[in-house]
Design brief:
The protein is built from 21 helices and no strands. It has 546 residues and is mostly helical. It has two domains: 212 residues, MFS general substrate transporter like domains (Growth Hormone, Chain: A); 213 residues, Growth Hormone, Chain: A, CATH 1.20.1250. The chain is globular and about 75 Å long. 44% of the residues are buried.
Length: 546
């Protein structure tokens, strides 16, 4: 059949009809999109590239790097400035007490933050600066005091004060920053990307810790920097600050946040209803004039007294400490059970990790920290401490490897299986170390510490994401807006992170007395017991979303 030019044109609809059809389809898509935004209160974030998730995880790398530096050097620093033993417990208790009290406040405040830069990133930046300040004070406090105070007695007093202040500030900010980082991830990622992001967090947490421990193991006094700077502590501060600043900058530039409220209502609307597959930024959309007609049409069609954009500024002003406490107490029971299981996990993990190098020196190597410094017993103890540091490095590397293995295991055993296995292997491993203290078997079993570490950093937060996903689905079915409930992701992440501080408080008050009476062996036995109790709690009390 031959199709003539005239018949071909006749077979096509007029161009005006095509244009009208396209406009109708576009209008229909806009209406569906608006209805979705009005019904759910939010649009599901688009899929994030792996590179963006890796950039987001760099904050955990820098944080853990600095944590490892603190673990390696804070005790020598405190001893070098002459801190009395009676003040040791005070140093380790102030920070977790502050964190336990203030963490939910900061989490709720970030849920209601109306900064144009986003809800979470202002808090992450502020806490990062406090971390750097604390690290600068406890690693350089002695040098700073010597530069300004000449009298010997005053130097010692102020050096202790400055160093203690630095340790408290660093621990406070480093513990605090985890909650906003997790909430930031949950805000900007789809459900599948949240799971990927948490695994990348665990991976880079382990890598950062391993590199930090290796950095502390280097004898920097024999390097060019060691000769140029007053002491090894300043060299370590230079590296730690440099690494953390780079990681924090990359993290803050990783994924743009959608601000909670805008002075420009049009800009806010476009942020909320732009299609999830768009790759250009919202600012570019506005500059290019895209979607302005959408806003104009819908605003003109809006019913009186009805607004497509809901401002939460009034909610932020009404948020008080009283309502915050009410929100925490009204958390559903499955959230509370998850917090209790998280508390068991961190009590077990910290009771082992805080005293592990001392356990290696005193129990495994049979040395003594109280012997004269030139004696064989003390040198043997120091050897055990150094080997213990290598064990912690094995733990960090194992944590990174297991974070990848979790992705493989998750489809087969689910979150419940991952949670249970993490607690069970850690409980069995620490129990074997306490019953059979041998150098090689202890180092081999240190790999199980990494499994527990990776579990604590991923599974509870994945469950929080599952809970929120389920709640939003139920609200969608009931025709409610997803943002109507007063409790946000920030305060739930903060509640989980509070369990870390509570575990530190409990251990600081109780475990120190037990160690003084029974020795360091009680730490690994306690860790094993608490972890095995946590196994049953994880299996029978924690709720898992099917």
């Amino acid at each position: 059949m031959t199709l003539m030019k005239e018949s071909f044109h006749g077979a096509l609809p007029p161009s005006s009809e095509v244009a009208r059809a396209d406009m109708a389809n576009t209008r229909e898509k806009r209406e569906v999109l608006l209805q979705s935004a009005m019904r759910t209160g939010a649009v599901v974030p688009r899929k994030r590239a792996v590179g963006r998730l890796v950039m987001h995880s760099m904050a955990m790398f820098g944080r853990e790097f600095c944590y490892a530096v603190e673990a390696a050097f804070v005790t020598p620093v405190l001893l070098s400035v002459g801190l009395p033993k009676s003040l040791y417990s005070l140093v380790w208790l102030i920070s977790p007490i502050l964190g336990f009290v203030l963490q939910p406040v900061v989490g709720s405040a970030s849920d209601h933050c109306s900064c144009r830069w986003g809800r979470r990133r202002p808090y992450i930046l502020g806490l990062g600066i406090v971390m750097l300040l604390g690290m600068a004070l406890y690693l350089n406090g002695d040098v700073m005091v010597s530069a300004f105070i000449g009298e010997r007695n005053k130097q010692r007093t102020w050096a202790i004060v400055i160093t203690m202040l630095g340790v408290v500030l660093f621990d406070f900010a480093a513990d605090f920053i985890d909650g906003p980082i997790k909430a930031y991830l949950f805000d900007v990622c789809s459900h599948q990307d949240k799971e990927k992001g948490l695994h990348y967090h665990a991976l880079f947490t382990g890598l950062g810790g391993a590199l930090g421990y290796l950095t502390g193991a280097v004898d920097w006094g024999q390097t060019v920097l060691g000769y140029s700077l007053p002491s090894e502590f300043q060299v370590i501060f230079f590296f730690a600050a440099f690494v953390f600043l780079i990681c924090l900058t990359v993290h803050l530039r990783s994924i743009p946040e959608v601000p909670l409220s805008y002075e420009d209502e049009e800009t806010k609307f476009l942020l909320e209803v732009t299609e999830s597959y768009k790759y250009s930024s919202i600012e570019e959309e506005i500059k290019n004039g895209c979607l302005k007609s959408t806003y104009t049409e819908i605003k003109a069609a809006a019913k009186p007294g009805e607004c497509a954009v809901t401002s939460r500024a009034e909610e932020q002003r009404q948020m008080t400490l009283k309502s915050l406490l009410k929100t925490l107490l009204s958390m559903p029971s499955h959230y509370r059970y998850l917090c209790v299981s998280h508390l068991f996990g961190w009590m077990a993990f910290l009771s082992n990790m805080l005293f592990f190098t001392d356990f290696m020196g005193q129990v495994v190597y049979q040395g003594s920290p109280y012997a004269p410094h030139n004696s064989t017993l003390y040198l043997t103890y120091r050897t055990g401490v150094e080997v213990g540091c290598w064990g912690l490095c094995i733990n960090a590397i194992s944590s990174s490897v297991y974070s990848y293995v979790q992705n493989i295991l998750l489809p087969y055993i689910g979150l419940k299986g991952l949670y249970f296995i993490g607690y069970l292997l850690f409980g069995l491993g620490t129990g074997l170390i306490g019953l059979f203290p041998n150098v090689y078997s202890t180092l081999a079993l240190c790999s199980l510490f990494g499994i527990m570490s990776s579990t604590l950093y991923t599974v509870p937060f994945q469950l929080i994401a599952e809970y929120h996903r389920e709640e939003e689905s139920l609200k969608l079915q009931d025709g409610e807006q997803a943002g109507e409930h007063g409790r946000g992701k920030g305060i739930d992440c903060a509640a989980l992170t509070c369990m870390v501080q509570l575990a530190q408080i409990i251990l600081g008050v109780g475990l120190g007395l037990l160690v003084g009476v029974a020795g360091s062996v009680v730490t690994v036995i306690s860790a094993s017991t608490v972890a095995l109790i946590g196994c049953f709690f994880v299996a029978f009390c924690v709720r898992y979303v099917e």
